Amino acid sequence: MAEPLATRRGTLAVPTFLPDATRAGVRGVTSDDLRRIGIEAVVVNAFHLLRRPGARVVQAAGGIHRFMDWDGPILSDSGGFQVWSLIRQDPNRGVIRDNEVIFREPETGEKWNLTPERIIGLQFQLGSDIAVCLDDCTDAEAPHAEQERSVERTVRWARRCREEFDRQLAERRMDDPPRIFAVVQGGGSEELRRQCARELASIGFDGYGFGGWPLDADNALLSEPLRWVAESLPADAPKHALGIGRPDHVVSAFALGYSMFDCALPTRDARHGRLYAFRRGWADRRPEPGDHFYRAVRIHDAEHRVAHEPIEDGCDCPLCSRHTAAYLHHLFKVGDLSAERLATLHNLRFYVRLFELLRGG
Ligand SMILES: [Zn+2]
């Protein structure tokens, strides 16, 4: 099992959940809100911040921490996954080549040349505490040749990222340097997943992410690929299950050796009125894979109109400690802006509590 992760802005107990503050904010809530419910670290997206507001704006603000008023650790994802999925949706948006990614803004026509070096430089400009290498995504259903190419590029780009990272560290003479993570690709192929993990480990990084879409067509977790990768990486290296976030998936991936998680799911679900709650008797038990430890509450359902009790009895979040399910149902029905905020805080607090249970052992 991974040790607590030391960063220049504090040590993270593991496992840890990092909410997605993709564009330097978790939608609908402030950094202060996040601190108050026990969130310790967040993820931003370097590629999206390059697009808007631009690295210079963040730099002029004094870095990403000052810009968003967050003094805890920040991991900046490279955006490899986002570029890949945007280009896959619409090939006119750009092209992924052996040496670079070209991305065109659909509205303005503005063109971005993303190279491994540029993405690392960008993360230094932002001032994040954990930088992530640019990777070439693929999915488990892609043809084998495509997956092979993705692994080849991912390893080559990771080597360039490592070199650029070390060059920047030497040039900047930083006393307290950030850390750098690489991302393992290989789709659904055991051979490629293991090969990619071993090659990245031989270059040497502070941690490793499991890359690519992590679910199958039925939304089940790709447990086997996750296991191959975890087994092929150094046992004590931090392993980040990128984008994995359904509560039962977190429990399964944690059992496989992953200790860092980020996902847009809890905050997105909250905005859609889908709230998580521990089932009766599960709020203080460490769940194991396969346990039915939580339920999803659909606050829009009519049954909540007169539910004059909290979403979850015993939850200490800003919603449950003061308000009933009936009140939240009402706020959603009338379109009050505080509905999404309260639901988001509840779901994130549920994650903080879940991770505390997993750590408790
Ligand atoms: Zn709550």
What does it look like?
This protein is an alpha/beta fold. The chain folds into 2 domains: 5-263, Alpha-Beta Barrel (TIM Barrel), CATH 3.20.20.105; 271-360, no CATH class. Helices cover 40% and strands 17% of the residues. It has 13 helices and 15 strands. It has an 8-stranded parallel beta sheet. α8 links the parallel β10 (179-184) and β11. α11 packs antiparallel against α13 (338-360) and α12 packs across α13. Zinc ion (ZN) is lined by residues 311-312, 315, 317, 319-320, 346, 349.
Summarize the structure in short.
This protein is of the alpha/beta class and 361 residues long. It contains 13 helices and 15 strands.
